[in-house]
Amino acid sequence: MNIPSRLPDVGTSIFTVMSKMALDYGAINLSQGFPDFSIDRQIIELVHRYMVEDHNQYAPMPGAVALRNAIASVIGRTYGRSVDPETEITVTPGATEAIFSIIAAFITTGDEVLLFDPSYDSYNPAIRLNGGVPVHLHMRQPDFSIDWAEVRQKITSRTRMIMINTPHNPSGAVLSAADLLELERIALQHNLLVVSDEVYERLIYDGTLHQSVLCYPGLAAQSLAVFSFGKTFHATGWKVGYAVGPSALMKEVRKAHQFIAFSVNTPVQLALAEYLQTPDHYERLGDFYQQKRDFFLEQIKGSSFEPRPCKGSYFQLVSYRGISSQPDVAMAEELTQKFKVAAIPVSVFYQDKTDNRLLRFCFAKKEETLAKACEILRKL
């Protein structure tokens, strides 16, 4: 059959490619963003208990009531914002599905969505699959900041949505209070929806505060914020996230979500609800990952790699201009195949494949893993 592709330019994800290459060549995998250490045994025991107690059937479409109540409490404690767990929180199978459901709910043929490169690879296809038009703007070098004057220039009568990501993957940059205030002014002036990918909200360093859209009343009224338990509790394979937003917006998101995934596995939801009752389980994660970032930076000293500032996420960008002039994809391949350390080339996060000779390393690893990898990197 002659079936036209709706995504003819999309192949296998770079994360899958590099992880397979790392496996094939026996390389240390600092490419894909997943921890190589165990999660807390307590939460595993909680999941097991709820399974044994036979909580194994469908959860409610918006999420288990206990988990939505727990999320509402966490949001109130963290951001000082009261949200209704019944109408303003939806639990999803990962942040990616939350983002897709949001786009499917609001974007139709010809609608423009502004997003900022380098951007996570699922954003653009989700927009296109729903008939939208992605409008890619470059974040400014070298600090990966947003030029809000350019944003205003790019807004047209067809602009429907702006997508932001803070802390940012892949750069590790974070948006400031001034950024969120300017975004609020723009969203209100032009009646735009905002999708805020905040999956690394807990992974923020050096005393920096995470600026959530939930903290700005005018902005929150037109925003949907997306979060991830997989990132927070080192369990990326569980694929559990959630979206938070005004009831009128969430009502539409749920219409899409119920036909894309319907619900999330029940025992994990109930385990998370109980686990969240202890604030230490999520409030100390910044310190935990900052130690790993600092360890990686200390270990890489003496190499010719030049680290870029990382204020959040569990990714560290480095420039390799002092080592090679080859394109970043070729550099990542050589590093994996010849030197046995896998990284992600940053050009893949740009729609136009802009190449600033940067690689992304994931430091969500055991110290022995990082030390072994950096021993190799120091020799280059």
Automatic annotation (TrEMBL):
Its cofactor is pyridoxal 5'-phosphate. InterPro entries: Aminotransferase_I/II_large (IPR004839), Kynurenine-oxoglutarate_AT (IPR051326), PyrdxlP-dep_Trfase (IPR015424), PyrdxlP-dep_Trfase_major (IPR015421), PyrdxlP-dep_Trfase_small (IPR015422). Residues 28-376 form the Aminotransferase class I/classII large domain. It comes from the Bacteria. The keyword RNA-binding does not apply. Pfam families: Aminotran_1_2. Keywords: Aminotransferase, Pyridoxal phosphate, Transferase. GO terms for cellular component: cytoplasm. GO terms for molecular function: kynurenine-oxoglutarate transaminase activity; pyridoxal phosphate binding. Belongs to the class-I pyridoxal-phosphate-dependent aminotransferase family. This is Methionine aminotransferase.
